[in-house]
Write a structure and sequence with these properties.
The complex is a heterodimer of chains A (233) and B (195). By secondary structure, chain A is an alpha+beta fold. Chain A has helices at 5-14, 19-29, 33-45, 47-50, 62-74, 96-112; strands at residues 125-130, 136-142, 147-152, 162-169, 177-182, 188-191, 203-210, 223-231. Chain A has an 8-stranded antiparallel sheet, covered by helices on one side. The chains are: A alpha+beta (233), B mainly alpha (195).
C-alpha cells in the first residue's frame, strides 16, 4: 500500500476502503504513529458533519442495557478494558530467513499429508505462527467452514495447569475470537464459532491460558506464537 | 432540515471534549462511569448520527449499544492528544453502522419494502441541507462550498449516508472508477482547503 497516508486515512475513516485494505490499516495503526495521527486527523476533519444529525432521545434504561451487554461480553464481569488486544502486541514482521524456512515447512507438511483430511477440503488460508524469536512454532489451516487444523512445527513448553488457546482476529472491530483450546502439543482439529470466511493477512495466535481457557473470552496469557494468514484458494 | 445541533458555544464544545476525554480514560481504567458520562454528554447526538445512517430506530439503537461496548473494550487504545475524544467515539459508532449496512444477513430481517424506503431515506439524508446546516463559522462548510456539486454529493453520500464506492457509482450512474476518482479528488481538495 503505497498511497499517500492522508488519502488512505480519509478513505479508512469514511469506510471506503475494501475490507482487506481496511483490515491492513487497522493492523498497522497500533505500530505506526504517523498513520495513527493521519487517521485521527481524518476523524476530526469531518466530525462537524456528524454534529448536523438531529439528536434523538435515548430509550429509558439505555445505559443499563449497555452495562448488561458489557457484563455478558466479559463473561465473569472482570474488567478487561486493558486486555491485550491481539493487534496491540504484534510480532515483528516475518524475519526474512524464516520466510523460506516456513515455506519449506509448509511444503513438507502439506505435501506429505501428515495427519488426516478434513472433509477432503483445502484450507482457505494457512498461517505459520512464529514465537518472539521468529521461530515457527505452529501452523493453522483455516478451512473457512468454522473448522481449523493446528499442527505444531516445534515443541511448546506448556506449564502444568495451563492450556493453549488458539485465536484469530476476523476484524479489529470484532476483536480476537477463540477457535478452541489445546491441552497438549499435537495435531488437532478445532471447531470454532461462526465467523466470516478467513482472509489473507488475518491474524492467528496461540496464548497460554488457565485450565478451561481464558476467563474473559479474550486472550489474557502470554503469547506462544502468532502469524498472518496466507490465502490458498 | 431543522438544524437543532450544535448550538453550543466554543466553551461548551471545549468542556464537552474534556468530559469525553476524561470518560474515555476512565473506561480505559475499567471504570463503568465512563460509559454513563459519554451517554450524558453525547448520547443523543450519537443516536441521531446512527439514525441518519441507518434510518430505522431499532437498528440505530442496536448500533449505538454495540458501539458503546466497543468503546469500553477499546478505550485503552485512545491516546490523549492524538485527535479528539469526540472524533474517536464517533468513528467507533460510524464503523458499527457501516458494518450493519454492509451485512446482508443483518439487513435481511428488514422487510424488502422497508429496505427500499430505508435506502431512499439514506440518500435524502445526504442532501445539500447537511452541509448547509453547518455553522457558517465552520471551515469545513466553506471548503465543501468550493467543491463541484457532483463531487460534494459523492463525498456526502459516503460520509453522511455511509455509501460505498460501488453504491455511489450506482446511485450517480457513473462507472466505479469515475466515482472513485471524484471522491478521491474531492477529499484531496478538502484536505488542502482545511490545511
Amino acid at each position: 500500500m503505497t498511497r499517500p497516508i492522508d488519502e488512505l486515512a480519509d478513505e479508512f475513516v469514511l469506510g471506503l476502503l475494501e475490507d482487506r485494505d481496511a483490515a491492513e490499516v487497522e493492523r498497522r495503526l497500533a505500530a505506526d504513529p504517523a498513520l495513527g495521527l493521519a487517521v485521527a486527523r481524518a476523524r476530526d476533519r469531518y466530525l462537524s458533519l456528524d454534529l448536523t444529525a438531529i439528536p434523538e432521545d435515548l430509550p429509558d434504561g439505555f445505559a443499563e442495557r449497555i452495562g448488561a451487554e458489557i457484563d455478558r461480553d466479559e463473561g465473569t464481569g472482570a474488567a478487561s478494558a486493558s486486555m491485550p488486544a491481539a493487534n496491540e502486541n504484534r510480532p515483528r514482521r516475518l524475519a526474512p530467513r524464516w520466510i523460506a524456512a516456513a515455506a519449506a515447512l509448509i511444503a513438507f507438511v502439506v505435501g506429505t499429508g501428515i495427519g488426516w483430511q478434513v472433509n477432503q477440503s483445502e484450507p482457505v488460508v494457512i498461517a505459520v505462527l512464529l514465537d518472539e524469536t521468529g521461530t515457527p512454532r505452529a501452523m493453522v489451516e483455516d478451512f473457512g467452514n468454522d473448522t481449523a487444523r493446528v499442527r505444531f512445527l516445534a515443541d511448546v513448553d506448556v506449564p502444568d495447569g495451563r492450556v493453549m488457546e488458539v485465536w484469530t482476529l476476523p476484524s479489529a472491530d470484532r476483536g480476537p475470537v477463540s477457535l478452541g483450546i489445546l491441552d497438549a502439543v499435537g495435531p488437532a482439529v478445532l471447531h470454532g464459532p461462526d465467523l466470516p470466511a478467513p482472509a489473507g493477512d488475518q491474524l492467528y495466535e496461540i496464548t497460554l491460558e488457565q485450565a478451561g481457557g481464558s476467563p474473559t473470552g479474550r486472550p489474557t496469557g502470554p503469547i506462544v506464537a502468532k502469524g498472518y494468514a496466507a490465502p490458498q484458494i | 432540515m431543522n438544524h437543532t445541533s450544535p448550538s453550543v458555544s466554543a466553551d461548551g464544545v471545549a468542556s464537552a471534549e474534556a468530559r469525553l476525554s476524561a470518560a474515555l480514560v476512565a473506561c480505559g481504567r475499567g471504570e463503568r462511569s465512563g460509559i454513563g458520562d459519554i451517554l450524558d454528554v453525547e448520547g443523543r447526538q450519537l443516536l441521531g448520527v446512527a439514525r441518519r445512517m441507518l434510518q430505522r430506530r431499532e437498528l440505530a439503537e442496536e448500533a449505538l449499544q454495540d458501539a458503546m461496548v466497543q468503546v469500553w473494550r477499546k478505550a485503552a487504545q485512545f491516546r490523549v492528544g492524538e485527535g479528539s475524544a469526540r472524533g474517536w467515539i464517533y468513528a467507533v459508532l460510524r464503523n458499527r453502522c457501516l458494518n450493519i449496512l454492509r451485512d446482508d444477513r443483518r439487513l435481511s430481517i428488514v422487510p424488502p419494502e422497508d429496505l427500499t424506503a430505508m435506502q431512499d431515506a439514506r440518500q435524502d439524508a445526504a442532501s445539500e441541507d447537511v452541509w448547509q446546516g453547518l455553522p457558517t463559522s465552520d471551515r469545513l462548510r466553506g471548503c465543501l462550498e468550493t467543491l463541484e456539486p457532483e463531487t460534494r454529493r459523492c463525498v456526502l453520500l459516503a460520509h453522511v449516508a455511509g455509501y460505498s464506492h460501488g453504491e455511489i457509482a450506482a446511485q450517480r450512474r457513473v462507472p466505479l472508477g469515475t466515482a472513485k476518482s471524484w471522491i478521491r479528488r474531492g477529499l484531496l481538495s478538502l484536505r488542502e482547503c482545511l490545511s
